[in-house]
Amino acid sequence: MSDAVRETLDRYYAALKAGDREALRSVVSDEIEVHYPAPEGLLPWAGDWTGFEEFETFIKTLGDHLVIDMVKPLSMHIAGDTVITVLKGEWTVKATARKVHTETVNLFTLRDGKIVRYQVFSDTAALAIGLGRLAA
After folding, report:
1. What contacts 26, CB < 8 A, 6 or more positions away?
2. Does the pTM of the predicted model rise above 0.90?
């Protein structure tokens, strides 16, 4: 199972990087649930997003605010249909041109070869400072 799960996530990350909607549809469930916790109003993309259309809105909202400069996988842990990835990332905030460096944990749940739940745990303070919403 772990090889199939790893392949699904590789296809997911490649589709995200390419902006390939059809490739994303092939690995993301129509009923996907996205959970990005942060204090209300701190990050424009934070919150809960349900369904593929809201997933696309989530991705667009991220892209409206951040440029992904680099994402490097540090580790991946697979337990059945649950995957935890730890990533090191560098982003540029479009509105402020500030660079943000964080480590992020992505928690995926897969069912029938598709991502059904995507949870993101990131350094919300670093991102908020980058956005100019918190003082450094």
Report:
1. 11, 15
2. yes
